[in-house]
Amino acid sequence: MDVGKLSWGVVLAILFLCFFSAFIRNASHAQGVKYNWLGVLLSFSTIGLAIYLVFFRQL
Q1: Distance (Å, rounded) from C-alpha 9 to C-alpha 28?
Q2: DSSP string across 6-33
Q3: How far is Cα 21 from Cα 44, in angstroms, rounded to an integer?
Q4: What sign does the CA torsion over 17, 19, 25, 30 have?
Q5: Are 59 and 53 contacting, i.e. CB atoms less than 8 angstroms apart?
Q6: Structural domain boundaries of the chain?
Q7: What is the pTM for the complete model shown?
């Protein structure tokens, strides 16, 4: 496994989790804004799966 690619994967995964938690925090405090939570979940899942496959599974 390539150490450089693995370390970039860890960095991107940490950034992804930070952005995800910030979005959830801001969305929960937003008054009068309705989110399509299925779409949000699918979007974040797709990004997370892409990071996992490219950087950790080396596809």
Answers
A1: 28
A2: HHHHHHHHHHHHHHHHHHHHHHHH-SS-
A3: 11
A4: negative
A5: yes
A6: 1-54
A7: 0.72
Q: Scanning the structure block, which residue is given the tokens 């804004």?
A: 33
Q: How far apart are CA 24 and CA 53, in angstroms?
A: 24
Residue type for position 8: W
> Of 25, 24, 14, 23, which Cα lies nearest the Cα of 48?
14
Amino acid, single-letter form, for residue 6: L
pLDDT digits (tens, 9 = 90+) for 14-25: 999 999 999 988
> For residue 52, how many other CB atoms are within 10 A of its CB?
15
How many residues make up the chain in this entry? Answer: 59
